[in-house]
Amino acid sequence: MSITLLNLSRRYGPARAVDTLSANIPTGCFFTVLGPSGCGKSTLLRLIAGLEPLDDGAIALEGRTVARPGLHVPPEARGVGVVFQSYALWPHMDVLSNVAFPIEAAGARRPAARTEAARHLQSVALSGFADRMPSQLSGGQRQRVALARCLAARARIVLMDEPLANLDPHLRIAMEEEMAAFHARAEATTLFITHDQREAMALSDLVAVMRSGRFEQIASPQELHDRPANAFVAGFIGRGVVLQAEVMVTAPGRAVLRLSPGLQVDARAESAKPGPAQVLLRPSDLRLDASGVSGRVLTCAYRGDHWEARVQVDTVAQPLLLSLWQRAAPGDVLTLAVSGGWVLPQD
Amino acid sequence: MSDDARAAPDRWSGLRRLLGEPLLLALILLAALVLFVLPLGSVGRLALFATGGGSDAFVAALSSRSVQRALWHSLESSALAATLAAVVGGALGLLIGLSDLRGRVALSFAILMLIMIPPHVTAIAWMQMLGPSSVLLQALGMAPAPGTTNPLYSREGVIGLLALQQVPIVYLTMRAALRTLPRDLAEAARVNGAGPGRLLIRVILPLMAPAMLAGFALAFVSALGNFGVPALLGIPGRYVTLPVLMWQRLASSGPSVLVDMAVLAVLIGVLAVVAVSAQMRLTRAWSVALIGPPQQPLRLTLGRARRFVEVGLWAVLALVVLAPMLAMLATALVPTYGVRLSLQTATLDHFREVIFNQVVTVRAFANSAGLSIVAGAVVAGLALALGALQRGPFGGSARAVTTLAEIAYAVPGLVISVAFIIAFLKPLPGLGVSIYGTHWIILGAYLAAFLALGLKPVGVAYAALDPALEDAARVSGAAFWRRLWRIDAPLIAPAAASGAVLVMLTAWNEVTLSSILWARGTETLGTVIFNYEDGGYSTLASAMSIVSVLATLALMVLLHRVGRNLPPGIIPWRD
Q1: Is the pLDDT of residue B6 over 60?
Q2: What's the complex ipTM?
Q3: A12 burial class (0-12, 13-18, 19+ CB within 10 angstroms)?
Q4: How confident is the model at residue B305 (pLDDT cuts 50, 70, 90)?
C-alpha cells in the first residue's frame, strides 16, 4: 500500500474536519477524493502532506509511519509532491528555477539541477519558456510548470488540490488528458481532490466520496454510478431518484420490489432482504412504454443531447426522472415503464 | 528513483531540525532579552525595589514642585498639541483622501516632511524664521526689535510646534482608514438621497471616528516623548516638560541620580503605555466591522473650488515647511549671527566648516550615518526572521517579541536611553568591559526604540503572501533556512528594505536617545546640532541642519523608488 490512513482525525474546535477516516490506497493508483465544499477533503490532503498536524490516528506512506500522535515528520522529509490549486509558483523565480528548486533542495548543485529541470520542462512541452516569469504565463502553462516541479521532486506520491478549478472549462478538458499522461509518466500514486464529479469519473482508478470528514464509499467510477452504497452517494453521483419500496422476492444479485400498488420493478441488488428498502432509479432505468403506468410531466429541461423530464406518477411519492428525445410540455401525460434499478444496501 | 525518496528520512536527523527554527528562535529571544527585557526590566527593578526606590520614591517624586510642574506641562502640551493635530490632520486626511485634488502623492509627501524633519531642527528653523534676525520678517518689516525674546520661547510656542509635528501622524491614520472604506457605503448613501454634506456627517465621520481617536492617541504619545521642541523652546521659555527635566538632571548630576531617573522613567513610560492601550481598547469598542473589500477610494468632485483649495493647501505647506527651512538656510549663509543676508554677505564658510573642518561635526556625520545604516539593516533582518517565525510553531513567542517592540516604540525615547544606561552602565558579565560611552549602547537603544517601525511593513508584506508558496517549498523538500533564504527573503526584501530606510531616517534624525547616551567620540548628528544651538552657535547648527535635511530628503526619494512595486500601506505617502 502506498498511502495508509488509519482512523485519522483532525478537529478545529468542536468541528471535525476529518473524522476517524481510514483508507488504503494502492501503489500507482489514481485515487480521487470527491466531495462537496467543506467536507474536509483539503484538510485530508494537508494532513497527508504534513502541512497540518493530526489529532488522532496514523498516516503511513510507502509503509513508513509519518504521523501519529507524538510523531510528525515535517513535509520536507515526507517525499510527497503537491500540486496546489493556486499552483504556488514562486513569483520571484523564472520557470526553470521553479522547477530546479526541489532538485537543489535534495542536495544537487545548481548547474546539475538546472540541467535536470530543463529535462522535466521538456516533458511538459515548456522548453521554450525556461526564462519566463510565472506572471508571464497563461493558466494552463502555470499548471504545467507546477506539474514539472512535481516531477522534478521525484515524489512517489503526488497530491493534487483541485488543480483544474482555476481553469476555463474548455482548457479543463485538455488538462484532464495531461493529468492522465502525467500520472502515467510519473509512475506515482496520485491523490486528486475535486468537487467536480465529471473530473473524478474521467480520471480515476478509484474514487472516494467524502462527506463530513468521512469516506462514504470507495469504488471504481462505474461501480459508484451503478452500485452506490447509500442515498448520499446515489444523490451526489449522476442523476436519479431514491424511492421507498418494498422488497417482495429476492434472488442472487436481484430483487423484485413493489414501488406502489400497481408498479413493480426488477432491480439489481446485493444481499436484499424482503421488507422495506430504498431503490435508486436512474433516468436510464425508465423508458416510454405504451403499456406502462401514466404520469404527468412537471418540468422538462434540455440537457445538451436529450431532454430530462420530471414526471409525477400518481401512486409514487416522488417525481421520477426520465430522458426524452424530444421536448415535452408541463402537463403532458406520458406512459412509462420501469425496467431496472439498484436496491441500496440495507444496514 | 525510489532511492531518492528513501534517502530523505535518513538525512533528517534530530540535530538538523534543531538547527532550523529553534536556533533562529533562540537568537531572536536572546536579542529580545538584551534589547527589551534587560533594559526595561532594570528600570522597573531600580524604581521599585532599589534602596531609595519603591513607593516612597514615587510619593517623593510626585510631591516635588518641579516634577509636578513638569508632569503637568507634559500632559497639557501633549493633550493640546494632539487635539490641534487631530483637527488639522483629520481635516487634511478627509480633504485629500476623499476629494479629486490633483497631486495627492506630492501633497502627502510635503505633509510627511513635517515629521521627517526632526523636532530640534524644526525648532531651530522656526526660531530663525520668527526671531529678531529673521530674514523673512525683516523683509516684511515685521521683525521684532533686536534683543527681544523670541515669541516661540513660550508655552504657546512649544504647543504650536508640537502640534505641527503630530499633524502627519493623524493624517496618516486617517488616510489608512479611508482606504479600507468600501466605496459601496458612500454610493449607497448617495443613491438614497444624501448630499455630500449629509454623507460626510452621517456616514463617513462616524465610520472614521475610531481612526481619529487612534490618530489622537498616537499624536499624544508622540508629543509626550518629544524632546527637541520642549528642550530648545521650553528651557528658555520656562516651560519644562518631564523628558526635559530628566535630561537636565542627568546632564547636571550624571549617573548618580539613576534611581530618581528610573522613577521618572517609569512614571512617563506607564503614562504612554496606558494611553496606547486605552486607545486600542476604545478603538476596538467603537469600530464597526466593515464588510466588503477595499475599493478604489471615493472621489468627491470639488468643482470650481478645486483650484482654490489646491493653491491654498500648497501655500500653507510652503509657509510651514519651506519658509522655516529657507530661514534656517539664510542663517547658515550669513557670516555671523545677526548680520543681514545679501549677495555680498552670503558665505558657504559654515558649510565648509561642518562638512570638512570641524572634527566633531565630521565625526557626528560619520557616526550617525554608520549607526543608522547598521540599525536599518539589523532591523530589516530581525523583522524578516520574526515574520518567518510568526507563521510556524513558535508563532506565540514571535508575537510576544513583536509586542515588546511595540511597547518600546510607544515609550518615550528618553525612557529607553535611561533604561540602557541603567542596564549597561556596569561592565558586561564575563567580558569586564562596559559598553556605556561606546557606539554599541547607542545602537542598542536605536534597535530597541525603532524595531517596531521596521516590523510594520514586513508584517504587511508577509500577510499579503500566498501561504501556498511556503507550503510548496516545504513539500519540495526545502528545510527552514533554505525556505527563509530562497523564498521568504527575496519576496519580503522590498518591504524589509522600506522598513530599513524608515529606521535609517528616524535614526539619522533622532536626538532624544543619544542626548544622554553620547560621549566624546560617539557624538551623533542630533546631539551636535542640539549642542551647537544650545551653546549659541546658531549658524553652525543651521548649516548642519540643512545638510541633514538634504540627506533626509534623499533617503525619502530613495524610499519612494524602492517602494514602487510594494503593496499599499508600506510607503506612508503613497496612495
Answers
A1: no
A2: 0.84
A3: exposed
A4: confident
Chains A, B: CB contacts within 8 A come to 91
Report whether A315 contacts A263 (CB < 8 A): yes
- Does the CB of B478 have a partner CB in chain A at under 8 Å? yes
The answer to whether the Cβ–Cβ distance between A80 and B475 falls below 8 Å is yes
Distance from CA of B7 to the nearest CA of A (A): 9
User: pLDDT band for position B5 (50/70/90)?
Assistant: very low
Q: Which residues of A touch B471 (CB under 8 A)?
A: 49, 51, 75, 82, 84, 88
pLDDT digits (tens, 9 = 90+) for B46-72: 888 887 778 888 888 888 899 999 999
- Put simply, the answer to whether B12 touches A84 (Cβ < 8 Å) is no
Instruction: Answer yes or no: are the C-beta atoms of B173 and B215 closer than 8 Å.
Output: yes
Specify the pairing of strand A30-34 against strand A189-194. Answer: parallel
Buried b (16+ CB within 10 A) or exposed e, B318-353: eebbebbbebbbbbbbbeeeeeebeeeeebebbbeb
Strand-strand pairing, A71-72 and A64-68: antiparallel
Chain B residues within 8 A of A76 when measuring between CB atoms: 474-479
Model pLDDT for residues A159-213, shown as the tens digit of each residue: 999 988 878 888 888 888 888 888 888 888 999 999 998 889 989 999 999 999 9
Question: Which helix (DSSP H) or strand (DSSP E) does residue A65 occupy?
Answer: strand A64-68
All three cell numbers of B17: 531540525
CA-based angle B131:B133:B137, to the nearest 5? 75
Spell out which residues of chain B touch residue A149, defining contact as CB-CB under 8 Å.
Answer: 472, 476
Cα nearest neighbour of A187 on chain B: B1
- For residue A219, is pLDDT > 90? yes
- Kindly compute the dihedral angle of the four CA atoms of residues A236, A240, A244, A248, in this order, to the nearest 10 degrees: -120
C-alpha closest to that of B324 among B138, B118, B121, B532: B121
As a residue count, chain A comes to 347
Chain A residue with CA closest to B472: the answer is A88
Residue of A nearest to B480 (CA): A76
Please state whether beta strands A214-219 and A206-211 pair in parallel, antiparallel, or not at all (unpaired).
Answer: antiparallel
- In chain A, what residues touch B472 (CB-CB under 8 Å)? 82, 84, 88-90, 149
CB contact under 8 A, B473 and A101: yes
Q: Which residues of A touch B8 (CB under 8 A)?
A: 77-79, 106
Strands of B403-505 (E only): list them: none
Per-residue pLDDT, averaged over A81-98, amounts to: 92
Strand order in the sheet with A307-313: A320-324, A307-313, A286-302, A333-338
**Backbone phi, psi, residue A69, to 5°:** -50, 125
What does the pLDDT read at residue A263? 85
Which set of grid coordinates corresponds to residue B222? 508622540
Which chain B residue has the Cα nearest residue A148?
B476
Mean of per-residue pLDDT scores for chain B? 87
Packing angle, helices B538-562 and B489-509, rounded to 10: 170
User: Which pTM does this prediction carry?
Assistant: 0.86
CB contact under 8 A, B491 and A81: no
Distance of CA B553 to the CA centre of its chain: 16
Helix (H, G, I), strand (E, B) or coil at A1: coil
Centroid of chain to Cα B62: 29
